[in-house]
Amino acid sequence: MLGATRQVAAAPVTREALxxxxxxxxxxxxxxxxxxxxxxxxxxxRGGVPPAEAVKYQxxxxxxxxxxxxxxxxxxxxxxxxxxxxxxxxLRLVSDRVASGRTPLGREVRIGDCR
Length: 115
Prior knowledge:
mainly alpha, single chain
């Protein structure tokens, strides 16, 4: 999109990337307890803990996993959008880095190296 900021221009791609990243976690959360009994919950029940208490801990663990996955996905996607655009909200191209002779990490690059 011409004239849009990097956030507006990348919004459809960002939305799809986050949806794809979080889908496995959401699917596993929906199946927990119905189709599968996770190991921690099963171990607690077999160890004598009341099932309601074991379920509470399992829900806590599942939410912590989902939160960590969500935080990692958002960080990776937004970091990628930031790294792929410059300060004027333009898309950075490989030729921009090759023209300067340096990569973002400072390593020397020759034209034949970029494929």
